[in-house]
Amino acid sequence: MGCRAHAVSALPLRFGDPVKANCSIQRMGYFGIGWEVPLNPPNFTWQGFVVWSVEKMTDWTIKPVCFALSEQGGPCYSNLTLIVYKPPDRVSITFLNHSESLFEGTLQCHVTEVAPAENVLVTFYRGEKMLAQMHLNTSSEKKPVTQSFTLNIVFSKEDTEAQYWCEAKLELGPEGPQHLPVMASQRLFAPQLSCPVELKVTEGKRFPCEVTGNPQPSVTWFKNGQIVAPPSHLNKKDAGNYTIQAKGLFPKNFTVEVKILPATGTANSCCGHFLLLVLLTQMITHV
Questions:
Q1: How far lies 31's CA from each of 27, 64, 67, 81, 112, in Å?
Q2: FRET pair for 22, CA 20 to 30 Å: which of 73, 101, 251, 274?
Q3: Which regions of the chain carry the CATH code 2.60.40.10?
């Protein structure tokens, strides 16, 4: 005899949210229906449907079962599959096993505190181009876990100018929410210089050159082949050619020619002082 107790087959539910599910009988011959939930007494009724509800779902592994009692043949059962989910707290990316001499390495996407892990889809990107998508092969853990996904890549010299990042999202099927937020990592990028190769700066002004990158690069400045500290406020002796070595996601070398311009108003100020002195001299002479 087939079971005619019908409940929703799968129900995605965010951890901490309320839940309500209905189970009903669709033919004669049954005299009662109810829900069995672990650690709770059966919820039984003589009517043709029964509702099970929880104000706040805090159980990751709960397995409610709807049962119907027939006049002949005993009970039958219909399982409700609850997919209790939690979006990740954080998504981050790192570059592993990267060799400066070889154009290959491993990207690792780190997804923190997500559930269930088997429903996570991770996507790797170079710039806006998708490199790969992947799920966990197998995972029976229903509680939040922290999981790493790795991708081996080979890149060209042009690829060293791109940004690398990953994103993670939960795929909960057609019954689940269709617009869950996608969480993206920070973007990895090679060192970049924030000033032109020929830099003209007024004497006394701050030195505007900075090297940025993610991860934060290690930077060494050279002038005339000697290691120097980048000047904070420029004067005439700071003029010249600089070489910057930056070691970050990829190694980069930059060259900057610094030209120092006279401070604005210096010549006019001297001229003004001279004219004032001449005027005062003439006034004294005529007294």
A1: 10, 20, 11, 25, 48
A2: 73
A3: 5-84, 90-187, 191-261
CB atoms within 10 A of CB 149: 22
d(Cα 168, Cα 133) in Å, to the nearest integer?
10
Cα–Cα distance list, 68 to 19, 28, 54 (Å): 21, 11, 21
279 pLDDT tier (thresholds 50, 70, 90)? very low
Residue 2 CB: number of other CB atoms within 10 A?
Answer: 5
> Hey, how many other C-beta atoms are within 10 angstroms of the C-beta on 52?
20
Cα distance between residue 188 and residue 162, in whole Å: 9
User: Which range (2-11, 173-182, 244-253) has the least confidence?
Assistant: 2-11
Q: List Cβ neighbours of 223 (8 Å cut-off, separation of 6 or more).
A: 240, 241, 242, 243
CATH 3.40.50.2000 is right for the domain spanning 5-84? no
Tally of residues, the chain: 287
Q: What pLDDT is recorded for position 281? A: 45
User: Alpha carbon of 219 to those of 97, 98, 101, 210: distances in Å?
Assistant: 21, 19, 19, 10
Contacts of residue 144, defined as CB under 8 A and 6 or more positions apart, other chains included, come to 86, 113, 114, 115
Domain 90-187's class?
mainly beta
Report the C-alpha gap between 186 and 170 in whole angstroms: 19
Residues whose CB falls within 8 Å of the CB of residue 24, separated by 6 or more in sequence, listed in order: 5, 6, 33, 48, 49, 50
Please tell us whether the domain made up of 191-261 is placed in CATH 2.60.40.10: yes
| This prediction's pTM | 0.79
Per-residue tokens: 153: 């890549």
- Are 68 and 48 within 8 A, CB to CB? no
What whole-number distance in Å separates Cα of residue 147 and Cα of residue 188?
Answer: 20
